[in-house]
Structures are given as C-alpha cells and as structure tokens.
Amino acid sequence: MKYYIRSYWTKYKQLYKKGLKGIAAFLAIGAIIFFVLATIASRGMGVIFNEVMARQTMMRGSVTVESLTATPWGTLSFTDLVWKDPEGRELLTAPSGKIRVNMWDVVTRNFKASAINGIELNDATIVVDLDDDNRLDFVPASPDVNKPLDEVEPRPKPPKKTTQDRQEELAKKVRNFNWEGQHLDLTITLRNNQLEIFQKNRHYVMKNVEAKIHLDSKRAIRVDMETGKFGGTAIGDGMTLKGRVDLKDVLKHRMPQLDLQFEVKGVDPSSLGFGDNIHDAMTLLTKVTGDFNRPLAKGRVTMPILRIPALTFENVVGDVTYQDGILNFENVNANVYSGKLEAKGVYNLDTRAYTITGVAKDLDSSEALKTPEFVVPVSANLNFKSEGKPRDMEVWGNFWSGGGHYMLIPIKNITGNFHNKGRHLSFSDVTVNTNITTISTDALRIDNGQLTMGPLNITSHGGSNFILYDESFDEIDENMDRIKEGMKQAGENSKRATDSAKGIDSIKVPDDVKESVGDVKRQMNEVKDAFKGIKIK
Questions:
Q1: Per the CB 3.0–4.6 Å rule, which of 104, 241, 302, 406 could disulfide with 225?
Q2: pTM of the entire structure?
Q3: Which spans are transmembrane here (predicted)?
Q4: Mind giving me the DSSP string for 327-386?
Q5: pLDDT tier at 77 (50, 70, 90 boundaries)?
Q6: How far, in Å, CA of 385 to CA of 275, rounded?
C-alpha cells in the first residue's frame, strides 16, 4: 500500500512541475508576443495618435504635434502640441510633454478616453473658462497673457449686449471641451505652465504653475497645485490649492463636493481697490467646502503691516469667509501706535465696493503725530467706505482721549470728529479740556500737507471767553517754537551745571543758565503781547 501511495505522489509531483513550467512558458511567450506587438505599435504611434485624435469627441477641433516618440511601455513624448478650434484659434499650446497610455488598449485598438493614464505638459499656456456652475471649458488666450502682471485687465471686457441676448448666446454656446460622461482615470502633471482663468466677472493670469491632479471621474479629483505670481482681478505672490473634489453621483445631477485647502499669498490691497497706494501684502488661508458651483471658504486673513493715511497697523489678524463673490471679515485685531484695533467689514470681489468699521483704543498720540511733547491716550471709532474706485476711499469717525500733557500743559481730555478723503483730512467739534481752560474749534483741515485752521474758542474756567483768529497764529507759533527751544537749552544748561557741581557744597548758577531762563521769560511776555489784539466776547 505504501508503495502505491509513494508512486502516485511521485507522478503527481512530476505532472505539477510540468504544468508550472508550461504556464510559465505560456506567460513568457505571451509577454514576448505582447512586447513585439507593443513595439510594432509604438513604431507606428504617429499613425495611431492621429487616428485617436480623429475619433475622440471630447475636444472640439484638431490636436497636432510636431514630433512624437514612444516606448513599448506606453509613454509618448511629444514636442509642440497645439490644440485649435475649427476656426483655427489656438486653445492650448505645449512646447513639450508626455502622454501615458494603456498599451493593451493600443494593441487591441480599443481607442477610448480610458486608454490615457497620464498627461504631462511642460511650459504650456492653458486658458480656462468657467461658467456660472464652474463647468470647465478651454478658450483662446487673451492679449493679457503676454503683458506684465500689473497690466492685466482686472475683469473681462463686458459684452455690448442686453442680459437677454447674453443668456440666449450662452444657451447656444458650443463648448470646446465636452466630457460627455466618459470614464476618465488619469494623472495630469503641469510643469512651469502659464494659466489664464475667466470666471464670471473675474480674470486671472498665473505664472509658474506646478500641479499634479489625479482624476477618476467615477470617484474623485485629488489636487496639489502651486502657482507663482498672478495678476488680474487681484495681484499677488502666489496661490496653493490642495485637497479633494468628490465626484460620486455627479452623473445623477449631484454637484461635486469640495474639501480643499486654499491659500492666497501676498495679495496687493490696491489691486482689490483698498486705496490708491496701499501695497502691504495680505495673505488668506482658507478651507473650501460645499457644492462645486457655490463654494464656501472659511479661514484667516493676516498682514504683518498695513499703512493707510495717518494710521499704521501691525500684526493684522482676523477671520474671513467667502461665498458668491463676497468676503466677510470678522474679529479683525491689530496693533496701532501702542494701542489696539478691533474691526469687521464686507468686500465685494466683483464691484470692489467695501465697508469697514472698527474701534481703536489707547493709541499713543506721540507716536501717531511724531511729536514727543504731545502725550495723551487716544481712542477712536473708525469707518472706511468705497464704492469700488481706489481714489474714492472715505474714512471718518470720532475720537476721544484720556489725560495727558502737551509740553508742560496738563490735558484732561480731547474729543472731536474727523473725515478723510483723498489727501484732505478735516477735524470738527474738536474740544481740548485742561484744568484752567477749554479750547474748541469747528474748522481744522490738512489739504495736501498744508494746515488750515479756523477760529479757536478759548474759555477759561473763570468765565472769560476768547476767540483766536488766523492772523495771530503765525506769530504765536513762532514764539512757541522759540519758547520750546529756550526750554530745551535751559534744561541742557541746568543738567550741565548739576553734573559739574557734584561734590561742591555751594553752587554758583552759571551766567548762560541765567540768560536762558531770561530768554524764556521774555518769550512768554511776547506771547502775552500777542494776545492783546484778541477779541473778547
């Protein structure tokens, strides 16, 4: 019995080994045959490429290449690819690149969109048009692609047609790219591309675009993209976009769902209409969710510094949301002249109109005015508004202060209103309260750097009321300057006398100190004389 079992097992092992060798030989022969067929197909790839381009229906027009080489492994390298519409207008150009295909589909001549596994475009110019639902199409480039980024048109030229004409035109529009629901599963790689985007009333030109996009039309799109500088509707240093677009059930008329991280770096505020000469860089870092045709972005806005007329903000940080072309800013905080700012606002990306309101607290007046003699903590309600033109920015509000001093004069508080438009800054209802007087004025303007002051009302707490007119200001200003200079010199002389008198019991006051003090007294008398012509109510 053992003999029969051993014999049977020996024969089984011999048959098993022969079977394995046969399968291996079959696979080897099959691989060789496939390699030979793939090699033959790759040598005729130019003919196959032209046939595929003639059969495909997604891209309207013609796609040609200057030269084409292929490997048996399915990589086609090309130079000077050009896609033109039937009217001969260029829709896409790429000096070089690669197309990766499934060689089994090529050998079996199963020419479908699914045969393409990858597309790589180097130094290409790509122009994308997004409709109201963000559906993608390719269109001819505008002249702006060859302009410096700061000269790119902020928005497309508006058509000279009625709204109804425009809607009818869109309904009849022939698309250059039509997906038609075909299954696509490929990786798109962009190297040093230039990208122009038209989207509703917005227009962007982006340089140095690097991207890797994996598209599976039955599942999702995975995006990893970074751009260099850009211009158009906004000017900035670059953008990054990373994340996923869910495409499940998209053929059942369900909108793709977004889950993306979107960062915009170094945006120039003037390019958005925030003032005519404000170029401090702004950065937005957001998470984008929601439907593909109506994305919702939430995140943070940051600016290391923001300089506007009469105000300098540092470390600006706030919350931002975006939807339907509207940016909402909330909880914006910043440092300003050793004080704090809290603000919020709304910005329309299409019209460039905006409103911003805020409260600044405990600003150091000596820093803001660059006058060390004037020290009071100032707070203010701020309002910024623009209808969309950089030069029409309007700033207004009111301010109030705590106690402080101007030179040796104690100040209890200051209140007033201000208004700034262009290079014209005005103050009204300004009141300065001291321990002995109240000074008020309704007219104080700074036009192009020139100060214009109306009458000053000076009311002493003893009941006397004075009005100081313009003709007295110049003389008083000159005397006050001399007084300040005399006080400064007297202080230096006094310090010098104190230093030299250390260790001496009896001190003789130097003659130059006496003279400085005498000068100050004489200058104070001159100020009194200047008030003799003042009218008294």
A1: 241
A2: 0.72
A3: 20-41
A4: EEEEEEEEEETTEEEEEEEEEETTT--EEEEEEEEEEEHHHHHT-TTEE-EEEEEEEEEE
A5: confident
A6: 10
